[in-house]
Amino acid sequence: MNYAAEYNKKNITADQAAKLVKSGDWVQYGEFVQQPIDCDAALAKRKDELTDVKIRVVTTAVLPKVVEVDPEREHFYLNDWHFSGVSRKLMDQNLCNYIPLCYHEADRLIGLCQDIDICFQPVASMDSHGFFNFSTSNSLASFVTKKAKIVVVEVNSSVPYCLGGNNEGIHISDVDYIVESSTNPKLTNLPALPVSDVDKKIADLVMKEMCDGACIQLGIGAMPNTVGALIAQSDLKDLGVHTEMLVDSFVDMYEAGRITGKRKQIDQGKMAYTFAMGTDKLYNFLDHNPVCASYPVSYCNDPFVLSQNDNFVAINNALEVDLYGQVASEALNGRNISGTGGQLDYIFGAFRSKNGKPIIALSSTSKKADGTLTSRITPGIGPGTIVTVPRSLAAYIITEYGAVNLKGMSTWERAEGLISIAHPQFRDELIKEAHQLKIWRRSNRI
Questions:
Q1: Is 251 domain-assigned?
Q2: 244, 400, 416, 433: which one is catalytic?
Q3: Are 170 and 280 part of one and the same domain?
Q4: Annotated catalytic residue 244
């Protein structure tokens, strides 16, 4: 195949690509910091010509133009597989809906349950072998481009070329149309999150669960980032990485000599991940770096794959944990904050790992708008609050007041353990609630 000739034949403008969309279509955008900026803007210009165009994204880092031009949601209907700050604000205005997803099942879910009439897939420039790279967002991209009836790639020459792994790109022979970005925008740089003294205390407790040769996964948030910083400053040796999200702190750990991957049982010597979000430090580190291995989420998040690595330590955040051990990490009181994402995958998989430790780490309290504290260890899950990790799978829960492993515990043992790591201000009330729920043994404190 003459790749240059094929490229020229398939090369169209963003406006021409937008013309391919019909009323009633399902359109798939990109993921995380990889979004089809030009095609989105061109589709937005067609607002008055279209109705009921349903769009799916995965954690968009930018406000889609199709939403900006249609605040009444009369023409475009946005749906997100995993909420970000952008989607949270849009949901508050009834401009975005969440798609429940067990992340490692995305390939089967798309294959069996979803229609994709057209995808606008962001990619890096074509290489000499005719491949377009999915850059920082492998994740669902290979599933989407296989399922879509029309595949349009939007080429951004400024993004990093991320090596596999596998399925990290798409060949020109599998592409219907090519749109070259007019601006080649740089990837979104995430702002640094403030680190509190509580985050530091929790991170110190998490560090006590680490060992030389551990394979780690970090979720998103200030606390996991703090753990990464402590690891970089520690004397831990030969850590491995198998994670859904690659963030800046992995670069710090690698450059400090903590990460070698030598003791991993699979992908030895590689930092396996499915998407990356961070700053230019991370994006520059990824570019053509053979230490990093980009995989589809069906591999990275499969509990039966990741558990093949011994001493797996999965570290994730939560919004709330109740006295039964139910973990709520995605929605509180009817407001969607995040999504299931890979938390359930990694909590389940880490426990299957030899000497693995599935960790949920959260501060014991949150602060209301009026400044008053509320406990994040609660008697039960309230209406509109979504359970992410069921009590049967919950294991290590860590707050700034300590750590408890719920595995094998009865309901009263769980209540006792969780109350012991709750904020002292709320412990007496939690004991009373546990007594009412019949999950507390006789105590002279009642």
A1: yes
A2: 244
A3: no
A4: yes
